[in-house]
Amino acid sequence: MHRWANRETGWPTDTVMEKRYIEFFDGYRQAYGLADFEHPEAYTDPDSGKKKPVYRWNFEKLTEQVYNSHLKGELSIGIQPCNENKEVKFGVIDIDPKEYDDFDKKFFIDIIQQYDLPLIPVESKSGGLHLCIFMNSFTDAKSVKSFLSNLLPLFKLKPDCEIFPKQTQLTKDSETGQLRPGQFINLPYFGEERKALNVDGTKFTLDQFIKVISANLVTKERLKEITEGIENKSMEGVDEEFIEGPPCLAAISKIANQENFDGKDRFMYNYHVMVKMKYPDSWEQKVMNAPVKYFSGIHANAWDKKFLGQKVKSWNRSSKGYTCTESPLSEHCKKGICVKKKFGVLSGSKGSYPVLTNLKKIDLDPEPEYEFDVTKPDGIGTATVHCRSVEHLNDQRKRRNAISKAAGFPPPLIKGDEEQIVLEALYSTQKVVHPPIGTSPKEKLHDVLHAKINGPRATSDAAFKTGSVLIENDIAFFKFDKFFDKLKSKDWKYNEGKTGRMMQVTYKDCEIEFLEQKRYPSKKEGEYYSSTKNIIKINIKSFEEVPIHHTKLKHKTEIM
Is 323 exposed, middle or buried, given 0-12, 13-18 or 19+ CB atoms closer than 10 A? Predict the structure, then answer.
């Protein structure tokens, strides 16, 4: 990467440097992420002794002042790279190794240099690595994400390695109609931390980093050129029958004869899928000859004619397609390239089911919700689908409607055994995540209820009827419908019945009751005004003792 070369003169002034930093790390500006070390829920990791922040969204505009506070080391921020127009100025491959002590950053730097990639390695907050690419202008997010996805096999990274932008299109909340910011990536150069690396492993100063970015800006056209160059190089020495097939099979065919190769079953099955389309009249013979052609030694001998004949007979009845999410195909997957191949993953796909991945079980109380990614028909773009319950997720028709709403296309209806395969593959990618601090239903309910109980007191019958709180002997009385209206203004997702049940369960020790009516006392002893309908009764002192535990976010992957 010769363009990383240091220079001794011509560095920009601090003001220009900061403006260039903001220009390069531009994105969604209506909110920004925070790594809040001062939050009450921040904690110290007992193993490392390091203080762990709470990761959360701050729904305020991202200004120059906020950027500058980050650069000064005062406020650690993150950003959603994708803006409202589905465009990005930068993208990131986020590498978080399982074992940081053995993490070899030089390996990634060497790959970048070997292929002359316009990527700049930057140390992440956790001690991993961000491989950053910067565009010369705002570019459609799908193209950048697709480019980075196709690089994963070069770095021996699995398909589930995080790539930012996570979302290539910001979706709207179904209840409020407001844009959901998605997930953010922590920015580099937080004070003296998270610096970019030179080819020799030394760290760039901020002004050097700005110069390096300027020298490595790329166009959308350049992304295509680099991708084609890598693909051409990867196809060297590959049998011509793979030219129009999935890139993963081409790559595997070059290593299938190695003694330690452990993927012959999956290779043979997916090879049969390809040749069945390419050679409809002679595919059986192609399959019968494949072990001798692509395997060696015990690998070839294990697939004797009798055993292989049984497989062919079974596959002749099969209508299933490529198993893209299974090893070893997943390690060599280049879906953005594969979808353009004549016999790739979308060949004859009019009736094929889209790939569902990255299932997140959002650990809400009282009932978890779910999100997953669906690959769009172009094989590049993805959409995030939201399901409000496990029943919603597991019901094919409800899930189909959710996919259609989020991604703009309806997947086909599939039979029971195929449906089971789809669900098993999706559940195998499941991760449990927690909502941002203060946004779980219980937390939101408690906050609104606390504000209500400690809000305006009813000093008249009219005030009571319009929602003010009546206090009698440490017991609070107030109208349920007015309280529910306040909840709905806070993006509350549950109906009145479910809300009432949640309150009964959560505050069962607070003498909570749902009264049909309550009369406001007159100034004259023993006299009352006309009844006010649908009243909540709750003990104030008991309410103040209810333990509502806010969720700790321990990693940026838990940011929703």
Answer: middle
pLDDT interval class at 406 (50, 70, 90): confident
List of residues 6+ apart from 542 with CB closer than 8 A: 507, 509, 510, 511
Q: Distance (Å, rounded) from C-alpha 249 to C-alpha 421?
A: 22
Q: Residue 432's closest CA among 483, 492, 368?
A: 368
pLDDT, position 523: 83
Cβ-based neighbour number of residue 126 at 10 Å? 16
Among residues 164, 364, 331, which one has the least CA distance to residue 246? 331
Torsions phi, psi for 432 (to 5 deg): -90, 125
Token pair, residue 270, equals 């997916």
Q: Which helix (H) or strand (E) holds 145?
A: helix 141-151
Q: What is the pTM of this model?
A: 0.60
Conformational region of residue 474, where left means phi above 0, alpha means psi within -120 to 50, and beta covers everything else: left
Going from the C-alpha of 291 to that of each of 175, 185, 301, 326, 458, the distances in angstroms are 56, 45, 8, 20, 84
- 136: helix, coil or strand? strand
Query: Using one digit for the tens of pLDDT, what is the confidence trace for 484-499?
Result: 999 988 778 788 888 9
DSSP state of 120: E
Using CB atoms within 10 Å of the CB of residue 400, give its burial: 0 to 12 exposed, 13 to 18 middle, 19+ buried.
Answer: middle
What does the pLDDT look like over 261-273, one tens digit per residue?
A: 888 889 999 999 9
- In this prediction, residue 551 carries a pLDDT of 39
Which contiguous run of DSSP H or E holds residue 369? strand 369-375
For the stretch 348-381, pLDDT in tens is 544 457 778 888 888 776 678 899 988 776 655 6
Tabulate helix, strand, coil % of the chain (nearest 5).
Answer: 40, 20, 40
Pick from 182, 183, 23: nearest CA to 89:
23
Residue for token pair 């007992």: 46
Pairing of strands 54-58, 87-95: unpaired
- Cβ atoms of 559 and 552 closer than 8 Å: no
b (16+ CB within 10 A) / e for 76-110? bbbbbbbbeebbbbbbbbbbbeeeeeeeebeebbe
134-158 pLDDT, tens digit per residue, is: 999 999 998 899 899 889 989 988 8
Nearest Cα to Cα of residue 447 among 507, 488, 487: 487
DSSP 515-553: EEEEEEEPSSTT-EEEEEEEEEEEEHHHHHT---PPPPP
